[in-house]
Amino acid sequence: MNKKPIFLVLTHFLVAVTAVVLTVAVVFFSNGTLMGSNKLQQLENLILNNYVDGADQKELEDAAAQAMIETLGDRWSYYMTAEEYEAQMEQNNNAYVGIGVTISGQDTENGMLIIAVAEGGPAEKAGLLPGDLIIAADGQSIVGKTTGEVQGLIKGKEGTTVQITYLRNGVESTVAVTRAMVKTPVAKAKMLPGNIGLVTIVNFNANCAKETKAAVQKLLDEGAQKLIFDVRNNPGGRVTELVSVLDYLLPEGALFRSKDNKGRESVENSDAACLEMPMAVLVNGNSYSAAEFFAAALQEYEWATVVGEKTVGKGNYQVTYKLQDGSAVGLSIGKYYTPQGKHLEGVGIMPDVVVPVDDKTAAAIYAGTLDPEEDPQIQSAIKALTE
User: Fold this and answer.
1) What are the backbone angles phi and psi of residue 90, rounded to the nearest 5°?
2) Strands, E, within the chain: which ranges?
3) For residues 17 and 307, what is the distance between their CA atoms, to the nearest angstrom?
4) Could you tell me where in the chain the CATH 3.90.226.10 domains are found?
């Protein structure tokens, strides 16, 4: 019997077994505590080092973070990628670098409809108008893209230029728009018939109190004898801005209460100075957080008539924690209460005068294109004030 072939077969077998053992050893060694201090790190390293088709580390970590927050079951806590966090900071400061347009994502199959153009902003200077349909940015079609994707194409560094291609009355045009810092007006004043002043508060972020007080004073100087505050579609904002506005309007007493995750309570109070005149507040199902507590305080003091639709009911407050890679988490850490101690979570504010509107009217109110004379909620507020 020839021993050489047997020897070769055994040699090859031992080499194969050794290779398998080494491979298994590497996998199991890589699975051990040396790869990470906890389960998530170990799993991430396992995928990154061994998954056959490869994986993107940033996508893995974003997905894991998102899943952890969703597991809490709290509809107000949220995870933001680094890009989303940067966008939120711009929103909170009511200032951003861009071209100064508000676009609608309702009809992405044809492009993005411009529903508002910032006064004095780059887009206005370039000749863009509400109603124009943006179809491309720097030659890249935006048809079918999400609002976030389109914003990513349009935004850029201050002083740089973007070529915007748009349709107006079916005619295609392209215009160069130079990106610049655009400030978002927070409070707008408008005099209505009957010496009634309308103050629209967009949000309660940076500059809200300053601009709201200025808007009220402007209307008073023009002879306003009654006021309507519009906080429909207002997403809320900073407590400090809310309290400053309420202190300006309301008499001495509690304005706002809160309790943190340790059970510690705090109360914000108003001084005796106030603004005494007939008032109404407009709210709807998109009035959130600070907007709700604004209406609630005026309602509980019997300082204003609340008109519109039931609000969403957001009573938990969040603190934003920035993570190492630039992403962030908005985590609910406490609860807010009205001056009388009511928690609005899941309850919201019920208007004194309920005025529902259809979807078409609601969309026009959101876009700011509905004339006050055609706005049933504004007209109901006027009626409430005059009666």
Assistant:
1) -65, -45
2) 78-80, 95-98, 101-104, 112-117, 133-137, 140-141, 161-168, 171-178, 180-183, 187-192, 196-201, 226-230, 253-260, 265-270, 279-283, 305-308, 316-322, 328-337, 353-354
3) 79
4) 187-386
Q: Do 302 and 340 meet the contact criterion of CB atoms below 8 Å apart? A: no
CATH class (in words) of the domain with range 95-183: mainly beta
Domain with CATH 2.30.42.10 in the chain: 95-183
pTM of the full structure: 0.78
Residue 275: CA count within 13 A, CB half-sphere:
18
Tokens of 184: 């978002």
Matching residue, tokens 């979570």: 345
- Give the model confidence (pLDDT) of 115-155 as tens digits: 888 888 999 999 999 999 999 999 999 988 887 788 888 98
Predicted confidence band of residue 95 (pLDDT cuts 50, 70, 90): confident
Report the topology of domain 187-386.
Answer: 2-enoyl-CoA Hydratase; Chain A, domain 1 (3.90.226)
Joined together, the tokens standing for residue 288 give 């959130």
